Known about the structure:
By secondary structure, the protein is mainly β. Helix content is 0%, strand content 45%. It has strands at 3-7, 10-13, 18-25, 40-45, 52-57, 64-66, 74-79, 84-89, 98-104, 119-120, 124-129.
Amino acid sequence: QVQLDESGGGLVQAGGSLRLSCTAFGRTLDSGLTTTYFPMAWFRQAPGKEREFVAAINWRNNNDQYGDAVKGRFTISRNNAKLTMYLQMNSLKAEDTAIYHCATGPKVYDYTNGNDYEYWGQGIQVTVSS
């Protein structure tokens, strides 16, 4: 079974930076695949708000997408040898405060649609003070 483990969250002042990591463990039950060949993504959810797409990247590490709220400030990347994905967050704003979840899956057709992702991490808190 695939498990995702996020790290790197915390409290930062507005204008500051954080880097989140998401490491995958295990294999899928049906095919025995690792997450190496799956797209990976970050979503976030603030209190009282719906889940929001943040960024996604394909397995080749050469095609990424970003939500409008983070374009130009956040950068997604991955290291397949380490089964780890990263989110470098710069110029953080108070409105970036949320729980950030990483996600992956073998059948993702729309990177921005959370329903396409089969595996999710438990989430990690990012708090930006103004």
